[in-house]
Structure formats: structure tokens, C-alpha cells
Specification:
Layout lengths: L84 E5 L2 E7 L7 E6 L5 E5 L4 E6 L5 E2 L5 E5 L13 E2 L4 E5 L4 E2 L4 E3 L4 E14 L5 E8 L3 E7 L6 E14 L4 E9 L6 E2 L5 E6 L2
Antiparallel strand pairs: 1-2, 2-3, 3-4, 4-5, 5-6, 7-9, 7-18, 8-16, 10-11, 11-16, 12-15, 12-17, 12-18, 13-14, 13-16
Length: about 280
């Protein structure tokens, strides 16, 4: 039979007191079959050695596992709001995370009871990625735009690339198109799919050619239609599409070039648009 020994420290004068709980039920303390320190001097238990835990059960309430004063953590929650903050609300499992060095960015992952998965910016209160139960993914802030003209742009001048003055947004998902400058500004570096389609009235048959351009900070993309001499037509037009490399802050706009003929060509608003989206 093992022996139990309680040994005082010869250099100390304090009294070690073991106090029984206020209970009528027998209590047993079983020590691990190992050597080592069970508790450090400050009592935080961080140097426990030789102790195996097969499982932990708890009748946990909503504040289970909270650590704060400003290391946050949470899980249930007992109020942290980030650094790590896991909780369940309305059967939605939510994990919030916030960088200690950047308290302005507070992100939340949500696995929702309708089968959707969300990545949400809690700072702005907006979803940045949504995957539905079929696996389809949408990104509500992904740069994408489509712009139109509110009226005809009349009497294009000759011999120069003339910017098409798009002033009406069909949509502008990340607010990257400026209807005053008629330009799209890339918010991030990437590859952008851009498309320009244009209809011209009073199409000049005696023009040598018309050019359709997408102009970015890095490159001018173009295609030309050779007209040659002949009678003016009521309408004509062209289109160009490109996947363009753009750096953050680069701009893109659409333009037209008419070589020779009369300076009476009009850009028709009903058949003209400029669109684009970040694809990778």
C-alpha cells in the first residue's frame, strides 16, 4: 500500500492548510502516476506534467471559456467580440476573428442553417463571400461594372481617340467607375475582362476607317473597321473585348477613332455600353 507524505519546507514559517469542502459526500483526489509539478507558483497550472485527459464534460452556459481583458477569445461567448469569438445563434455557427494589431478589421465566418457559408466583414456589416447550398459562390464586392450613355454623344471630332463619355451606371458592384471622368479604376492588381460595344449613327462612308479602343494605363487595345469611299450609312458600329492586366490604381476607358470623312458621327446611346469585371 502506498504511503502519503506531507512535508513542510524547512525555510518557511507559513502554515499549509487543506480544507475539506462543505459536503456530506465523500470526495477523492487521485494524483497522477508521474513526477513533476502540478501547479506553478502562481497557480496557473501551465506546467502540469504527466496528466492525461481522456475527455472534458461540462454543463456549460453561454459564458463557457471566456478569457478577456483584452486577449478576448470567447466561445459561447461572455462577451469578447473578436480575436477569436465562436458562438451559436439561431443555429448559425459563427467564428469571429480580429487581428490585435488592426482593430479596424473584424471578420466573421458563418455556417448558416440554410446551408450557406458566409465570409463577412463585421466592421462594415457587409458580406464579402457567399457560398450557397449548391456550392455556387458569389462575391458581392468583387469589382464588376456596366455603364451606359444617358444620351447620344454627337459629332465626334476626327483624327484622334475620342473618349466615350459613359455617365450612367447599370451596375457598379464595388463603386470603381467614375461617371465624371468616364473611367474605371482598378481597386486591386489582377486580370480584368473588359468589353466595349458601340453603335454609330451618320456612319461616314467616306471615312478611311473607324477604330474601337479600350485604353488602360498599361496598354491600348484596339480593332479597326476599314470603310473606304462610299455613301454614308444610317448606322454602323463595332466592339472589342480583352482580358487586360491592371495594377491597383490603373484606369481603363473606351474610345473611338475616325479617320477622314465628315465630323458628324454620333455615338448612339441605345446601342453602346462598356463593362468589365475582375476575373483573377
Amino acid at each position: 500500500m502506498s504511503k502519503v507524505k506531507i512535508q513542510g519546507n524547512a525555510s518557511g514559517t507559513g502554515v499549509l492548510t487543506l480544507t475539506a469542502p462543505n459536503t456530506s459526500t465523500d470526495r477523492t483526489i487521485t494524483l497522477p502516476d508521474a513526477t513533476g509539478t502540478l501547479l506553478t507558483a502562481d497557480g496557473d497550472g501551465s506546467s502540469l506534467t504527466g496528466v492525461g485527459v481522456a475527455g472534458i464534460t461540462s454543463a456549460a452556459d453561454a459564458t463557457a471559456i471566456s478569457i478577456d481583458s483584452s486577449e478576448r477569445v470567447g466561445i459561447g461567448t461572455g462577451s469578447p467580440t473578436a480575436r477569436l469569438h465562436v458562438y451559436n445563434a439561431n443555429d448559425h455557427v459563427r467564428l469571429s476573428a480580429q487581428c490585435a494589431q488592426n482593430t479596424g478589421q473584424h471578420w466573421q465566418f458563418q455556417s448558416r442553417n440554410n446551408g450557406e457559408f458566409w465570409l463577412r466583414n463585421e466592421t462594415t456589416g457587409s458580406n464579402k463571400l457567399i457560398m450557397d447550398s449548391t456550392g455556387a459562390v458569389t462575391m458581392p464586392s468583387q469589382p464588376a461594372f456596366c455603364v451606359l450613355l444617358s444620351g447620344n454623344q454627337n459629332n465626334l471630332a476626327l483624327y484622334g481617340r475620342r473618349k466615350v463619355e459613359f455617365d450612367t451606371e447599370r451596375f457598379d458592384q464595388n463603386a470603381d467607375f467614375n461617371t465624371s471622368t468616364h473611367e474605371f479604376t482598378a481597386p486591386v492588381t489582377g486580370k480584368y475582362s473588359l468589353h466595349f460595344s458601340c453603335e454609330i449613327s451618320d456612319y461616314q462612308g467616306d471615312a478611311n476607317f473607324y477604330g474601337w479602343h479600350i485604353e488602360t494605363s498599361n496598354e491600348v487595345y484596339l480593332t479597326y473597321e476599314h470603310v473606304g469611299s462610299g455613301a454614308s450609312d444610317n448606322s454602323g458600329g463595332g466592339a472589342i473585348s480583352v482580358i487586360a492586366d491592371m495594377d491597383a490604381g490603373d484606369t481603363a476607358y473606351a474610345s473611338i477613332y475616325q479617320h477622314a470623312g465628315g465630323a458628324t458621327s454620333d455615338v448612339v446611346y441605345t446601342g453602346t455600353h462598356f463593362s468589365g469585371a475582375l476575373i483573377c
